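Input for the complex:
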Amino acid sequence: MEDEKNLMEEEDTQKDKYLTFSLGDEVYGIDIRVVIEIIGIQKITTVPEVPDYVRGIINLRGKIIPVVDMRLRFRREYREYTDRTCVIVVEINGVLIGLIVDGVSEVLDITEKNVVPPPDLKASQNKYIRGIGKLESSVVLLLDWEKLFSEDDQELMGSAAGDEPAKDDSSGAESENKSE
Amino acid sequence: MAEPMVEVFIYETRQFLEQLEQIALGSEENGGFSVDDVNEIFRAMHTIKGSAAMMMFDEVSTLAHSVEDIFYYIRELHPQKVDTTAITDIVLNAVDFIRIEMDKLDGGGQPDMSSQELREYTKNFLREMKIANGDDPDIDLRKAKNANAAKKEKPKQYYIGAAKAPAAAEASAGEGGKEDGIHVFAATIFFQEGCEMEEVRAFGVLNNLKEKVIEIHNLPEKILEDDTAVDTIRSLGFRIFFTAKMNYDEVKKELDQTIFMEKLELKELGSTAECEYWPTPETVAINAMENTEPIKPELPPQNERPEPAAPPPPAASGSRTPVHHGDGAQMISVRVDKLDKLMDLVGELVIAEAMVTQNPDLAGMELDNFQKAARQLHKINGELQDSVMALRMVPLEGTFKKMNRIVRDMTKKLGKKARLVLVGEDTEVDKNINEHISDPLMHIVRNSIDHGIEMPEVRLDAGKQETGTVTLSAENAGGEVVIKIKDDGGGLNKEKIMERARRNGLLTKPEAEYTDREIYSFIFAPGFSTKEKVTEFSGRGVGMDVVVSNIKTLGGNVIVDSDPGMGSTTTIRIPLTLAIIDGMSVSVGGSSFTIPITSISRSFRPEEGQIFKDPDGQEMIMVQGRCCPVVRLYDMYKLDGAVTEPSEGIVLLLEAGEKTFGVLADRLLGVQEIVVKPVPQYISRLMNTTGISGCTLLGDGSISLILDPQMLHNMIYS
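Predicted:
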C-alpha cells in the first residue's frame, strides 16, 4: 500500500514533464516517465534485414538494446553522428529501446492546458505527435511514444512468426517481476 | 492478498496431485489398491480438501471430499468388490479437475469451474459400490464409526466438567486474570447444518484467533487428527476457551466473521477456573507429543489486515510432503526465477572475466603474475558455472512418468493394448529443457499409440505380441541429451505421407529425390495429418509441429526413422546447456560473428582459384573430395569493408545435420566461452530468415551475432 502511494506520488511528480530533444530544426518532447537514461553515441552493431531506421544494437552495461535513429524514423535525411548526438534510452511496455537524436536540451514542464492537438493533416507524420506544447517563444512537438512503437509492432508483427505472442507474454511477466 | 500462501498452496497441491496420479496408475497396474495406497490416497485427498477449504475453494475441497469418502469406505470396511479401473478413473478425473483449477490460480485467475458433475458421479459410484458389497448405501460411515468411538472413548473426553483443572494451574491462571485487562472467554460455535468439513472450519477459527489471544484451548481437543471431532462439533458445537486482552465486543466481532456460522454463544468469565476445560501446561505438553502427525494448514486472513499474513513455514510441511524418507540429505525448495537470476549473473561473470583478461589495454604486455591469477579466476568461474548448471538439473523421471497416464487413457479409449517402458529416466537435464520437452513427448507418444501401435488382433495376425510396447529412453551423449521414443507398431506409411504432402503442396523438389528421412519429417509440418478421421487424440494435424517448434527453442532437433511393419523411432537431440557455449568469433568488415564451436569442422585459407562457381553463380569449394557450397558473409549481410578476395580471408566449414557448407569471413578472432543472449525482441521479429540465433558480448564489450549453422543451411538450400 505504502509503495503504491509512493509510486503514485512519483508518477505525479513526473506528470507534465517532458524531456526535449532536437531533430534538425524541430524540438520534440517525450514523457519523462518512459526515459531511463541518456547516453552518448557508442559503437553500434548493425543487424541484417531490418528497416534502415533501426541502426542496430548496442551494449548498455551488459544489456543488449536496439537503437532507432529518429531522423530516419521520421524520414529525414541521415546525418553523421557527432559529439552532440545522444541516445535516449526509453522503456516502453517493458522493452528497452534507444532513440538516436541530434541532441538533448532540457526537461520542461508543460501543463495539459498548454498542449493543443495537432492539426488533422493527411499523410503527415502527425500520427506520432500527441500534441503541440506551447512555450513562451517556441513550440514542442510531444511524441506519442505509445503509438510510435505499437505501430512499429504492428508493422513488424505482419512478418512475424506465430510464436511471437508467447515471447511477448514472457517479457510482460518479466517486467511485472521487476516492478514487485 | 496473501500471495505467498497461495503459492505454497498451489505448490503443495500439485505435489499431492502428482503423487495421487502415480499411486492410482501404479495400483491399476498391480490390479488393486494395497493398504498403503489406500492410506496414501486418503491422506493426500484429505490434505487437499483441508487446504482447499482453508483457501475457500469449495469446489475443489468438496470434490476431494467425495473422493476421500470412497477411500474411507475402502479403508474402513475392506469391501470385496472393488472396481480398480473405475476408481482409478475417478481419482484421475479429480486430479485433472484440481490440476486445471490450480493452473487457473497460478495464472492469476480464480478456480471457478463447478465440480458438481464429478461429485455426483463419485457419490453415486460409492453408493453402488456399497450396494454391490452388501452394505447399506445410506449408512454414513463416519457417523457410525464416530458413534462407536464416542462411546468407547467417553472417559477420555474432558468436557462435561471433567477438567476441574488442578488447583495450581487454576490459582495461577486465576490470579493473573483481571489484572492487566486480560479477559477470559468461553465461546461455543455452531456451524450451519450441511456446510460439511466442520473440523476444518473449526481449525480455521482457531488459527485466526491464535495470534490475538494469550492462551487458547478447545473442545474437542484434536480437531483434524480425530475422526470423531466432526461429530462432536456438529452435536455439541465447537467450544473454545481463551484469555485475551480484547474486550467482549472485540471478541464477538472477531468471531462473527466466521464463515458458515449458525450460532455463537459467547460468555465472559471471571477467571480461567470457571472454564469447563482448562488443561494444565503438562496436559498440553502431553497432547502435543501425541500429535505425531500435525496437519496444520494455515487460513488466509479473512479481513483486511495491515500486516501481510506470514506464509506457512515450508519446514513445517516437511512431514507430509511426499518425499521418501530415509534419504539423509536435506532439501530446500527454491523458486526457479532465483535460479534463473543466478544463472544470468554467472553469465555476466563470464563476460566480465573475458573483459578483464582480454582487455585491449593489456595487449602486448608481459604479465606472468596476472596470467596466473587470471587462470585461477577462470578455473573458479568454470566450477561455479558447473555448480549452477547442476543446481538446475532435474531428472527426466517426472516428465517420463506423466506419459504413463497418456498411454493408459489412450489405450483404454482406442481399445488397443500397449505398455510404456522407461529407460534412463534418471538422466538429468536442465529444468528448462524438462519443461519444454513435456509437450513434444506427449504428442509423440500419442502419435505412436494412435498411428503406430495396431489393434490387438492386427498385431496377432502379424505375429507380434498382442500388447504393443512404447519405449521412452534418455541418455547423455557428449554434451547432448538424446531422447528416443520407439514403438513396435506398424511404422510410418511412406506412400501415404508422400501423397498427403503432395496434396498439401509441401513438395519443393521432384518426388524421386526425397530421402526416407525427408519424407518422414513431413509429419512435423503444420496441419499435416494422414488420418482421414479426426479423433480425440490426433488427426487434426496440430501437435507435431508443436513438437518441432518446442524442440527448436531448446536448440535441438528431431529425426524420425521407421521400419515398415516393425515400428518407428523418433529421436530428439537437445544440447545440455543452453546459456553458455564455446564459440569461435570471426570478423567480417567491422562486425563480428560467433559460431558454436561444435558445428565447425575445420577452417582454412583457400588457395586462389579453389572456389569456383556454378552456372547460377553459386560458389563452391572442393574439400576432401566433397563439394560444398560457400557463402560470403559480407555479401549475405551487406557489410562494407570486408575482405572480398577468398585467398585473403578464411573459410569455415560448418556442419548442419548431415550437410556441410562453408562461410567466408575476414579473420578468426579466437575461441571464447560465450553467453547467449536473445536478440532484442524489437529486432528479432524481423529476423526469421537471417541465420542469427542470438547475440553475445565479446571481451572488449562489443557485440557479436551468433550464427546458427542450421538456419544458415536452410537459407542456402532453400
